[in-house]
Amino acid sequence: MKQCILLKAPAFSFSFFLFFFFFNHSKMGNEQTRHQVPQGMQMQNYDFNWNAVSPRADVAIGSTDFVVGQKVSVGVGNAKFVVAKRLNVGVGKVQEAICFDKVEVGVGKIMVLHCHSGTSISCGLGLIKQKHFHDIHELAAMARNKAHVAPVVPQGPPGHQPYPPQGQ
């Protein structure tokens, strides 16, 4: 009788330990890989014209050199360079990415990620090898150069020059 009780007690405590280990570990993993803007802080305006690019771009199974869009999804495919407001990588691989608002990686890989401190990053079983945090305006300039998008010209009253003349 005592042998049965001794065998049951360690088995129960071991399963109890496993339950709490996995419960706390999964909770800890999400908190460690998620970077979000503190509440009450407004997102900054930056000079990138999202209306000039596609609202959605998907790489399902194939491979591509360059993808730009407001929301980019890489399923099982590969992309060498991505410029996105929101990026979702499933099982695929992205060599280099510039992302502004949100990055989600499932089982896939992002080798180099350029983002700013307000970008929400969530990584499941996947990998983000390198993260480079930039100033929001520097990130927008990098994205404009890569995507060949003209800067947004601020609207003002007639005769208003949004940028001072160069060389004077």
What's the quick description here?
The chain is of the alpha/beta class. The protein has helices at 2-33, 136-147; strands spanning 56-59, 63-74, 78-89, 93-105, 109-115, 120-123, 127-133. The N and C termini lie far apart (96 Å).
List the helices and strands and how they pair.
Blueprint: H1 2-33, E1 56-59, E2 63-74, E3 78-89, E4 93-105, E5 109-115, E6 120-123, E7 127-133, H2 136-147
Parallel strand pairs: 1-2, 2-3, 3-4, 4-5, 4-6, 5-7
Written description of the protein model:
- Strands 1, 2, 3, 4, 5, 6 and 7 form a seven-stranded parallel beta sheet that branches.
- It is built from two helices and seven strands.
- With 168 residues, it is α/β, with parallel strands linked by helices.
- Mean pLDDT is 76; it is low at 1-43.
- It starts with a helix and ends in a 21-residue tail after the last helix.
- It has helices spanning 2-33, 136-147; strands spanning 56-59, 63-74, 78-89, 93-105, 109-115, 120-123, 127-133.
